[in-house]
Structures are given as structure tokens and as C-alpha cells.
Predict the structure.
Amino acid sequence: MNNGFRSVSVIGTGIVKFGKFKDLPVPHLARPAVIDALREAQVSPKQIEAIYSGSAISGWMAGQRIARDTGMSGVPVINCENACSSSATAFREAWIAVASGMSNYVLVTGVEKLTRLGGGTLPLDNEDIEVTNGMVMPGLYAMRAQRYMHDYGATEIDIATVAVKARRHGALNPDAQITTETTVEEVLGSRKISDPLTLLQCCPTGDGAAALVLCPTEIAGNHNNQPIKVLGSHLASGRYLSGYRDMTIPEITVRCSNELYEETGIGPEDLDVIECHDAFTIAELLYYEALGLCGRGEATKLLHDGATSLGGRIPVNPSGGLLSKGHPVGASGAAQMVEIVRQLQGRCGYRQVADARIGLTHVTGGGTYGFDHGACAIHLFGR
Amino acid sequence: MSKTAEPLATPLKPNQGRTLSQSEFEPGISGECQNLIGSQCKDCSFKLFPPSAICPECLSENMSPLRISTTGKLYCYTKVHIAPPSWVAPYIIGYIDMPEGVRIFGKVEAAREKDLRIDMPVTVNFAESDGQWRYFFSPTN
């Protein structure tokens, strides 16, 4: 470990089935995930030294509100907001606390209740010159898709196929919001959102929560007979560029993943399973390339070859991804990590990736003008 | 006479986008908009639109106005069908690469949508209402 850090392991995981829970208060949404994680870790709430809570639009003090209802009031809380990377950022901070020797038992939570906002596109910063000129998140991704189709000859069918794969995986995940499969015809025939993206190519609105308990690896075996090590953690912020940039290269993901690969000595060829930020179908294709799974313009081939499907050489989003689970913004990072940890523990039933040893989670966060995205958090886990 | 609170910002009318402030455009003889104005940093050459008094890259205050050409290249665009508050869908948005090296986001209007092509030349247009100017882009003819 670098910096004199000690090794950290995940000893408990919890997740709720994502869906729409308009009448459920945020702490009650998170509570089952927190209780499951503590129970799995065989850690009492009174042993938790700090809570790292990720949420973006669920109101201030989300961590304290959760703690109040889970026997942990009074525990120091760090509330993290990094848009869609909120709970991955919370996880990173929790990892640093344990790795540095400052804490032994910490809880990470990710929670979001998007149904608070009603439906439609996420409300963006109304000081942003692009937002006030009509920008919406689906529009941003749609423009990336337009440019990618133009530069590499990808078709609307190619891009829609990402949703078909996501839903095929999601149908095997009882915690996903949508557990039915779909077809290219149904995807392309769904309501237009921002050309070429249709409704089924966008992550559904929903609520959700996930939680993890961390401790030093050296004592993890006392709590869980299958602790999973955190092999690496990296966080990046977008670079402000006012000039020309290739919108088909997500620079923040390229930079964050390259830096993490270099830091850990683990490369894309070493990965067995990935959960990446498929908020929109085009995103997953761009991330195949940005994470180094294939070369520029080769993402659609990787998809069509089945390489990133369950049974393929590098399954991506075995959980069904954000496209099937929904994207309760602050919860997604932690939810991806719960999936990867359970994949490495062999607990994923019909969607189990055979002999998964090393897994990667990737989230990006938000948009603001001049940036690819605001934040990106990538983590590596291993048996 | 009763006093009502002033809104903090001019409420956006449907699809009219944000108005330009005085520093953001160069007026012609009759006061109409001619060019968008950005900034260029004299110390590190960073260029940006909208303009800024302080360079966001190097914090220099040596900023000079950057007159942006009226014609650029349509890097990408999309027709938005689900609108943010105060906008009525559908409408088209795009990123336009200006020859000065800045990329500008804006609404794109075309007589026929199928005339739009990636990388086509587009020209900035200005529209006035209630004494306020807004900008958008359309195919150069």
C-alpha cells in the first residue's frame, strides 16, 4: 500500500430494491441497507466510528438523519456530495479513514430519493450559461452519441443494443427497478427524449440506497469469512476546457482510470467484472473505450461480440446497470460497490460472473459547462 | 401602492434562453448585436466565452476582449424532446466551434431540421425582446 496506508476490506454490504417510494422518508429508505450491512459485518452500530454518507439532492444532513434511525446518533458524519459520484466519494473518504489508521470500523451509505423532484430531467445549476440556454443531461449525452455516430459510423441500433444487454442482466437482479428484458425495437420505439436517445436508453427515475462497512484487512477475517479488499481508489475532477475537445473521449474517465491503473499496477486486462456509469446507453460505449477495454471506435464491436455480456470475457454491469436499476444519484456509487463485492464473493446467483477475482466500479458525476463531467470515482476490489 | 418583491433574475420566457449582458456582445451602429465578446488572457492565452475579468486558469487580471466571429462550425447538435422548466420542447441545441478557439453552446434554429449536418457552417443570430438580447445559431447561407 502506498503512503504507509494499511489494507482495507469490505466486511458488510446492504442494498434495497430500487424503485419509486414517494412516501418513504429518506432515512427509512436507507435503513434496511444499513441494517443488512452491519449484520453481515457482525458489527454493532455502537462500534461504528464514523459514517460517510453520499447523497446529492435528498436534503442536508442525510447521514445524521439515517444515523438517528439506526442507533448511531452522535457518531461523526461526513456528508459527501459529488453529484452522481457522491457515495463513491463517501466510500473513498471512508477508505482513507481506515487506511490511514484513523478509524477501524466505518459505515458508508449512499441514498437518494429522486421521486422528491417529480419526474423529468434532473434540475441543473441555473447559473450555468448552458443550462439557461436549454441544456439538459440527456441532451448532453445525446450530442455525444451524435458525434460518436458521425465519427465512427455507429448506428442507432448499435447504441440501443446497450439497453437490451442491460435489461437482460437486470432481469436476473431482484434488486433492480426494472426486471424485464427488452428488444431493440422496443427501445427505439420508446418515447423520444433527445435525439437519438429514447426513453429506454435513459436510466429511469427512482429511489434507492446501499451501504457498506469497512475495516482493516488484518481484522476483517474476524467479521466475515469472505472479506473483499479495496485494491485501489481514485477520484478526479473534470478539467475546464473552453475550446475544442473531442466529446467522444470522456477525458475525466480516461485520466482517472489511467492514474489508478498506474498506481495499482492493475490494468484493464486484469479485470473480471465491471460496474460502470451507464446513465445513458451511449455512455457505456464511450466508457468501454475510456476504461481501456478496447480501442477508439471499437466499443460497438465489443458489445456485439458479447464480450461485455454475462458469459463474455469482461462482463460490464452484471447488475443491469443504471439503465435497469435506475440512478438514484447519491446511491449509485455505493450500489455498484455492493454488486462488485458480492460478485467477488460468489453471491450473485443467476447473474454471477464465473470466478470473478478483480472488479472495478466507475461513476462520473454531474455536468457543468466546460467540463466532460464534474467528478469521476473509480475503485478496484479483489479477493 | 403595495410593493411586491423583485425577482432575483429576469424570469426566462419559454425558449428564449439567457439574455446577454453588456460585456458579452459588441453593438453595431444602431445598437444591435453584431458579435459575441469573450475574453482572452494576455498572460496564458486562455480564451473563454462568456468573458471574465479574472483568468480562470492563471488568475491573471490582464484580460482583453475577444471578438468572436459570427460564423463557426456545428460540432454536434440534438433535438431535445423533454424540456427543462420554462422551455417548451422540442427545440434544438448544439455546440459550435468558433475560429477563435472557443466552443459555444446555444440554441440552433433551422427552417428545416434535415438541413442540419454535423460540421456545417452556422452563423450566430441575435434576437431582441424587451430591450434584452439573446443569441442563437442557424445554418449559414
